[in-house]
Amino acid sequence: MSRPRSATVVVALLRAQLRLELRTFESLPAMCLFAVTTFVLFHFGLNVFQMSSDLASGVLWVTLLLAALLGINRIYVADAEQGGFDGFLLSPAERSTMLVAKILVLLVYMAIVELVAVPAFAILLLEPSLWNAFPGLLGVLALGNLGIAVIGALVGALAVRTQARDLIGPLMSLPLLVPVLICVAGWTAPLFRYPEAVGVAVRWPLVLALYDAIFGLIAFALFDFLLED
Amino acid sequence: MSALEARGLTRRYGERIALADVTLTLEQGQTLAVLGSNGAGKTTLLRVLATLLRPHAGELSVLGHPLPGESWAVRGRIGLLGHEPMLYRELTARENLRLHGALHGVAAERIGEVLAAVALERRADEPLRTLSRGLVQRVAVCRTLLHAPDLLLLDEPLANLDPAAREIVEPLIGRSSGKARVLVSHEPAAALAEADLVLGLIRGRPAFLSAPAELDDAAVAELYR
């Protein structure tokens, strides 16, 4: 018996997951609303209407990471509660296809959240112009999202099998996401410097890319064992 | 090549033994009926045979492949129809089957065939949450048969189906399908009528394994005491 093509399986899983989200809106609205609400709270709570540099970078990324946790906690819920895991395990498909599909799902979620959250952040809190920082910010968002998605897809699979998944998910994700946070915040801060952005230290993209790659390998190595009995 | 060969098959959940020392052989085209009260280990047996659970002791060969070592070779040749339909409620029948078709490398035309076989084409584009349990069970039958499995593992397969639906589904998953089958049922009379071999389980342990003709009512009644 031959195995189905992995690319076909990944596309099918991705399409199913995005369809589920479009019909239930269980994750994305909550993630977007959380991010925007947090910026509003910072706006009034800190009594700082404009921020730049390290503070702006930290506020943006902490908010995005916490919003991501809402999505991470839910990406496997339909699979666990409606027998999707068993249906998948009964098939000859490569186990890692589900990991890849979930990473892609989280990347899509994060991109949509950032489409809403970053302009909201710029309007509510950011002192320098977003346009000046935008080209550099795209790179940070891409690599940062990848780190969040890889860690989220792995930890989500672990957490969903436990009774206290809402606790276990963040508890396991946050320590693993701290290096991502350090890199993206360090990378973003010079882009948000006011009155003028300064050059980015090359170490942050490199360290982040390395961390993403290492965690990607760990996730691929462990994922089969997480799904199987 | 036998469809199933098990020797001393054992499975535990923590300290609790769910299945103990099950030994049986099922030939191609034969039906094994598994009887027992709730918690007797019937579903655990099906899940072990389906490669979803690993046996903790004993030897098991499914369709000529030793498990769990060659699980990958068996998956895709097994059709499991259990209590859970293994379908997403927010997706339509067709979307669910498209997903499972991709997981099994099945051509898209096959989806239309199985939907037609259970007379479900008209409702195939409605989300499952809007369908009755009987209709969802028919979609689950489609999922089970989509990849034309060689071995059917059936846990109360006719549950939720009305008499008309049973008539539609029966030729597909019943004895006349010609496939090797393991049939779990709470209706001993119906199961015995279909079986070549009957396994009775009490608290995970085999109480008997015999041909239906050799069984007396008392032995079956003992299972449910």
Keywords, separated by commas or semicolons:
heterodimer, A: 229 residues, mainly alpha, 9 helices, 78% helix, 0% strand, B: 225 residues, 8 helices
Overall 3D shape of chain A: globular
Largest sheet of chain A: none
Q: What global shape of chain B is seen?
A: globular
Unreliable parts of chain B: none
Q: What oligomeric state best describes the polypeptide chains here?
A: heterodimer
Q: Overall mean pLDDT score of chain A?
A: 92
How much of the sequence lies in strands of chain A comes to under 5%
The largest chain-to-chain contact, stated as pair and per-chain residue counts, equals:
A-B, 30 and 32 residues
Count every helix of chain A, treating DSSP H or I runs of 4 or more residues as helices: 9
Please state the CA-atom Rg of chain B, rounded to the nearest Å.
17 Å
Query: What is the element string of chain B, with H for helices and E for strands?
Result: EEEHEEHEHHHEHEHEEH
Tell me the number of strands of chain B.
Answer: 10
Strand content of chain B: 25-35%
Provide structural commentary:
The complex is a heterodimer of chains A (229) and B (225). Chain A is mainly alpha-helical and 229 residues long. Chain A has one domain. Chain A has helices spanning 6-24, 28-45, 53-74, 77-81, 84-89, 96-124, 130-159, 165-188, 203-227. Chain A is globular. The mean pLDDT of chain A is 92. Chain B is of the alpha/beta class and 225 residues long. Chain B is built from 8 helices and 10 strands. In chain B, the strands form 2 sheets. A 6-stranded mixed beta sheet of chain B has the order 6-7-8-3-9-10, with helices on both faces. In chain B, strands 2-1-4-5 form a 4-stranded antiparallel beta sheet. The model of chain B has no long low-confidence stretch (mean pLDDT 94). Chain A binds chain B through residues 1-5, 8-9, 11-13, 15-16, 19-20, 23-24, 78, 82-84, 86-93, 228-229, and chain B through 50-54, 72-73, 75-78, 80, 82, 84-91, 95, 98-105, 127, 143.
